[in-house]
Amino acid sequence: DHIANQIAAGEVVQRPASVVKELLENSVDAGAIQITLLIEDAGKSLIKVIDNGCGISETDIRLAFERHATSKIRKAEDLFAITTMGFRGEALASIAAVSQVECVSKTPDSSTGTRLVIEGGKVKEQLPEASMTGTSIAVKNLFFNIPARRNFLKSDSVELRHIYEEFIRIALAHPDKRLKLVNNGTEIYNLLPGTHKQRIISIFGNKMADNLLQIREQTTVITISGFLTMPSVAKKIKGEQYFFINKRFVKNSYLHHAIMAAYEGLLQPETYPSYFVFIDIDPAEIDVNIHPTKTEIKFRDDRTVYHLLKAAARKTLGINAV
Ligand code: ADP
Ligand code: MG
């Protein structure tokens, strides 16, 4: 069973950034409005997420680290209306199988919290511990029990870049939450709640403020909002390009193409715009279950979405829709 867990873990946990993504998503699902991420040694020795969400009760805390023990999907029909980030109940079990985990959590209706320590998937201790409402999960020494995987990790700067990227995706999707990132004791981001525009600026800098053009379109099933950068400030390197569907970061080359088609004829050769596009759509219109890490997504009717997005982008860029 431990071997099976380790193998399954490989799918979810590829590198420190995968742990960061899963922990941050769980904090979002827990309704936290304040989330802190602490990193040491590019996540190789420590990844810790502290949130003020709903917490995990003493009776549920072990279960949370068992495979497929999700609290988020209760019946098969729920799969068609997924509104939480997680729904497979795999992440914590996978992370715990390949690291040393310390979780401290407290629910609002409990007077004291619980500490759970797991090493390589084995529970080492569970004790009451005084704590604030919410959850703190420390993931230490990732892949300590799989030296081949640990040696395969990239340099600290590469692993750190992946971690920052996961943090930024969550931060852009949730501008209403306070999010902090501390690396080796140095505060990298301290993002206050605000609008999407404020969040973009606090991540990418004040220069971005004058370069953003608003995009907006709405039908009965879909709302498109966000910002495109002016063609004149397109960069020689690939810009910051982000799509979010129902507050979930996604990669979608088809939608990317819709935006790029709207910029056609406006860009200097070999330059790339930035964009931050937020699409909200009835969950019944999408299928998020096509990839285990869920960064890809399929629309029931992607041609309609494509044309709507392209037309909205052309309007934003000052061109009559065709
Ligand atoms: P999933 O998110 O797919 O349900 P996970 O393995 O990521 O599966 O988490 C397992 C369960 O642990 C969740 O369903 C949730 O009940 C609980 N959980 C995990 N992280 C948190 C958190 N930060 N706050 C509250 N509950 C949590
Ligand atoms: Mg999860």
- Give me the side-by-side strand order of the main sheet: 5-4-3-6-2-1-7-8
How many separate structural domains? 2
Helix content: 25-40%
In this structure, how is the largest beta sheet organized?
Answer: 8 strands, mixed
Number of helices: 9
Shape: elongated
What is the CATH third-level topology name of the largest domain?
Heat Shock Protein 90
Instruction: Kindly report the average pLDDT value.
Output: 90
**Proportion of residues in extended strands:** 25-35%
Broad structural category: alpha+beta
CATH architecture of the largest domain: 2-Layer Sandwich
Distance between the termini: 58 Å
Domain DNA mismatch repair protein S5: 200-318
Organism: Thermaurantimonas aggregans
GO molecular function, one term: ATP hydrolysis activity
Protein name: DNA mismatch repair protein MutL
